[in-house]
Design a protein that fits this description.
The complex is a heterodimer of chains A (163) and B (395).
Chain A lengths: L2 H12 L5 H8 L3 H13 L20 E9 L8 H8 L4 E6 L6 E7 L2 H12 L5 E8 L5 E2 L2 E2 L14
Chain B lengths: L8 H5 L4 H10 L5 E2 L11 H12 L12 H15 L9 E4 L1 H13 L5 E6 L5 H7 L3 E6 L10 H7 L4 E6 L12 H13 L3 E5 L25 E6 L12 E4 L2 H14 L5 H17 L2 H23 L12 E2 L10 H12 L1 E2 L1 E2 L11 E4 L4 H20 L1
Helix pairs in contact in B: 3-10, 4-10, 5-6, 5-9, 11-13
Classes of the chains: A alpha+beta (163), B alpha/beta (395).
């Protein structure tokens, strides 16, 4: 990764709505080069999407989230990839990670209601033949995501004006 | 009861800091975005804080030697020699102080005799001149100009020297201008110091915050200047450790000895936990190539570019600052004085900046804005200032 790429990724991670002009100024390069570098990062799928961090609790949208620990039987020649693919194709699944430790896959699931989520686990996930066990934990409260603290800003302890 | 009889009239006569007045005004306002701060927006790196916590848990709560922990002084020596080619004997030539501020105060009090003149380049940090007065000397401002990138020019220095001149304070990288002195600039000053038999207090607290491929050069490594220089530095700016209050002075042992005498009677020693933390900052920095410092500098640099460019696109003349974390744009084209500009900006747009004249009369016409502030806030602040400038110019 070049220094410019690293700089642009840092800046976009902080605020993906920064206009190209500002990105160019802050990274000390030309508008064209910034545009080309970002396009290249997108093409290489380094940048996949520009998404905001949302605190859904402040909206009226009903939404439940769960983290499901999944034990699976790895397949010959395919390892965990094939079963992971079966799982991540479900729309309810937001993230899937292969984990070290007591279980194999960590699956983050989102649904509108508890009933929907429960039926996803019992009807869709558990019935996959390679899944040997699941443990579902519901998210009760979200404190911090993507480096952003949800409740209250971190206070600035500095004096307003100092020499 | 009136206390006039009990107060030292010379101290009373020193005007309060221009910054202080502004602080009082700004801190009464709600939801102000402050560009008036003078410290990093980073917290002290975790491993440094943790080291201090562990030291407290282990019961390391006693005095240290007056000059500071020897292990810290050794680290300071390694740091200065590795980073800036400065060699000081940890036993006799380094004194750990309560922030760089104490080091400056001690250097002045150790050297200034009644009636001595001390040259202070302006604009610069608000404490120099009062400290000179408190030490019994007379501060003499030396003008630096935007046309010269706020560097101290030999002709202005020479012009300010009289028979009474004894000391020069050399504050680079500079607060508030962000100006720096490069090798050639320093080399041009050195012969004048020699010729007039002066000493130099070189305040290099911002030495690590220098951008765009520029290198910090210490004044003491100029030919013949080691015996004539007290180098002042500290941990506040480079390691985001302002509240810890740890700085240091390095110089000829004869002067450090006298400074230590004042320090030992007045202060005893810098707080131990701060010293332990400072030692960790240098030790780990030496091992990992000053990763934390470089990361913070990189982040300041991005914001620095943004600030300079934004002020320029507002139509304000903005000198390119290569050091510290301030920009010092000229607001002359608005027709307002620095104080009017800042007061109005605070009232109308809730943005705090510091009027340039707080840093000496030749700072008039400029304002100091610190870019050590979160990017989202900086963007809002810049938008509001742009709006403000347009409104002011429109009238």
């Amino acid at each position: 990764m070049t220094k410019l790429e690293s700089c642009l990724l840092d800046l976009l991670k902080e605020d993906c709505r920064l206009p190209l002009e500002k990105l160019a100024i802050m990274s000390g390069t030309s508008l064209e080069e910034v545009a080309a570098t970002i396009e290249n990062l997108e093409k290489r799928r380094v940048i996949l999407r520009y998404a905001p961090v949302i605190n859904w609790d402040l909206t009226d949208r009903e939404r439940v989230e769960a983290m499901i620990e999944v034990k699976v039987t790895p397949q010959r020649d395919m390892g965990f990839d094939a079963v992971a693919a079966r799982i991540y194709r479900f729309d309810e699944v937001k993230s899937v990670y292969l984990m070290s430790g007591a279980y194999d896959l960590l699956v983050l699931v989102e649904a509108r209601t508890l009933r929907e989520l429960a039926s996803f686990v019992s009807a869709k996930l558990s019935t996959l033949e390679l899944v040997t066990g699941t443990a579902t934990s519901f998210v009760l409260k979200r404190y911090k995501e993507e480096g952003v603290i949800f409740e209250g800003e971190e206070s600035d302890h500095r004096l307003v004006v100092s020499p | 009861m009136t206390y006039d009889r009990f107060l030292n009239p010379e101290v009373v006569a020193v005007p309060p800091s221009g910054i202080r007045r502004f602080f009082d005004l700004a801190s009464t306002m709600k939801d102000t975005i402050s560009l008036g701060v003078g410290e990093p927006d980073f917290k002290t790196p975790y491993h440094i804080r943790n080291m201090a916590i562990n030291s407290l848990i282990d019961g390391e709560t006693q005095y240290t030697p007056n000059r500071g922990l020897l292990s810290l002084r050794k680290e300071i020596n390694r740091y200065l020699s590795g980073r800036f080619q400065l060699e000081y004997d940890p036993e006799t030539e380094i004194l750990v102080t309560v922030g760089a501020s104490e080091a400056i105060d001690l250097a002045l009090r150790a050297m200034v005799r009644p009636g001595d003149e001390v040259l202070v380049p302006e604009p610069s940090y608000v404490s120099y001149s009062p400290s000179v007065i408190f030490a019994g000397g007379t501060p003499v401002g030396v003008v630096t100009r935007e046309e010269d990138d706020f560097r101290l020019k030999p002709e202005y220095l020479e012009a300010a020297i009289t028979k009474k001149t004894r000391l020069l304070i050399l504050p680079y990288p500079n607060n508030p201008t962000g100006g720096i002195m490069e090798q050639a600039d320093l080399a041009a000053i050195a012969p004048i110091i020699e010729k007039h038999d002066l000493m130099v207090i070189s305040d290099e607290i911002y030495a690590e915050l220098i951008y765009d491929g520029k290198q910090h050069t210490s004044f003491a490594i100029q030919a013949g200047m080691m015996p004539r220089t007290i180098t002042i530095n500290g941990f506040s700016k480079a390691f985001a450790m302002t509240g810890w209050r740890v700085g240091y002075a390095c110089g000829p042992k004869e002067i450090i000895n006298v400074m230590n005498k004042i320090h030992q009677y007045g202060i005893m020693c810098a707080p131990r936990m701060g010293q332990v933390a400072a030692e960790e900052a240098l030790r780990l920095g030496r091992e990992n190539g000053y990763e934390d410092v470089l990361t913070m500098r990189e982040s300041y640099d991005r914001r620095r570019r943004l600030m300079v460019d934004s002020f320029r696109s507002m139509g304000l003349h903005c000198f390119e600052p290569y050091g510290a974390f301030y920009v010092f744009p000229s607001i002359r084209s608005t027709g307002l004085t620095s104080e009017e500009f800042c007061a109005k900006l605070l009232r109308e747009k809730s943005i705090a900046a510091v009027p340039g004249n707080a840093f000496g009369p030749c700072g008039e016409g400029n304002i100091r804005c610190c870019y050590a502030t979160a990017l989202d806030k900086l963007n809002i602040a810049l938008d509001r200032i742009a709006e403000f400038v347009q409104e002011v110019k429109g009238n």
